[in-house]
Amino acid sequence: MYIIIPRTTNIEHLNLKVEQFEWDGRLYPQGFPQSVINTNWIIEDAPEVDYLINLLPQNLSKSEWRWLYVKGDGLEDFVTKILINNVETDALFEIFAKTLNDAAKWVVFCEIDNNPIIHQYNESITVLKENIIEKIIRRESFLVHND
């Protein structure tokens, strides 16, 4: 799942850091800046994804985005709780709220089982939560944006 926000959006609350590997007294950076949240979630400041750039709505500039990749056991646990146990969890949406509230515009993208992507305009983060749950239950890939 990707959270795509303007580069100017303050994301200090995510505390993204590049993992360092020490060898022979020297530090070597490993991968992209990332943050582990609640031990189950990893948010990574990732490079642009070419095929997703072309899916962005025409009215959104394609060169000013920061791509945050959400991965980890938390996402799988979230999907399992929704699909199998029909239990709602708020951990994912706490991340969304903290990150998206300061963004002037945002896009959330999730691809499930290579299904066709459904585009949707969405004004509120509260409605976003309901839409994401609905799309995951229906096993639908989606791209939701607020601008």
What does this structure look like?
The protein has 147 residues and is of the alpha+beta class. It contains 4 helices and 8 strands, in the order ββββαβααββαβ. The chain has one domain. Helix content is 26%, strand content 35%. Strands 2-3-4-5-1-6-8-7 form an 8-stranded mixed beta sheet. β2 and β3 form a beta hairpin.
* Domain count: 1
Distance between the termini: 19 Å
Strand content: 25-35%
The count of helical stretches stands at: 4
Q: On the 0-100 scale, what is the average pLDDT? A: 81
Element order, helices and strands?
EEEEHEHHEEHE
Low-confidence stretches: none
Give a short account of the largest sheet: 8 strands, mixed
Main sheet: strand order: 2-3-4-5-1-6-8-7
**What's the gyration radius in Å?**
16 Å
Topology:
Blueprint lengths: L1 E5 L10 E7 L2 E12 L3 E6 L3 H4 L11 E7 L1 H11 L7 H10 L6 E4 L6 E5 L3 H13 L3 E5 L2
Parallel strand pairs: 7-8
Antiparallel strand pairs: 1-5, 1-6, 2-3, 3-4, 4-5, 6-8
Describe the structure in brief.
The protein is of the alpha+beta class and 147 residues long.
